[in-house]
């Protein structure tokens, strides 16, 4: 049962303090209780802190999946007996959504890059390859692993290096 809660967790859950106090997690956050209750049991029985990522939802936004990094720790009374469990909760929903969007974007890029009939070569600001399409490997005769981390100018014909270098430098300066 909640015995103390801060204003931030009340805000995240969309409920006032009195809606938490004296109630169990399953009463306040039924979806989250499936993940949290076993963690609480582990802290009480083993007496050690447990860190976990918890996925659930809040009454403030029912049906919307949220993500939290949590740390649950034993709180001992006068002796060694654990009388409660404390928790630190950090919401990471936006980060998880950004990570998912990045994964999806990378998947779309790879799907295009691996099927387009062109040489696609991605490099960092220093000019080292971070991605080479299969066509690059076909064209150079080198594997993707051999191309990665190599300076892209090493794959340009010597007669073209000066003009390519100028174009590259303009692109780096202009962003």
What does this 3D model show about the protein?
This protein is an alpha+beta fold and 175 residues long. The chain contains seven helices and five strands. The longest helix is centred in the middle third of the chain and has 21 residues, at 93-113.
Order of helices and strands: HHHEEEHEEHHH
Number of strands: 5
How much of the sequence lies in strands comes to: 15-25%
Which percent range fits the helix content? 40-55%
| Head-to-tail CA distance between termini | 54 Å
* Radius of gyration based on Cα positions: 27 Å
- Tell me the major beta sheet: 3 strands, antiparallel
Uncertain regions spanning at least 5 consecutive residues:
none
Widest sheet, order of strands: 1-2-3
- Net shape: elongated
Number of helices: 7
Give the rounded overall mean pLDDT: 91
How does the helix and strand content classify structurally? alpha+beta
Task: Output the keywords.
single chain, 175 residues, alpha+beta, three-stranded antiparallel beta sheet, two-stranded antiparallel sheet, 7 helices, 42% helix, 24% strand, elongated
What topology does this entry show?
Blueprint: H1 7-13, H2 25-28, H3 30-46, E1 50-58, E2 61-76, E3 82-91, H4 93-113, E4 121-123, E5 129-132, H5 134-140, H6 144-147, H7 161-174
Antiparallel strand pairs: 1-2, 2-3, 4-5
Task: Please give a quick description of this structure.
42% of the residues lie in helices and 24% in strands.
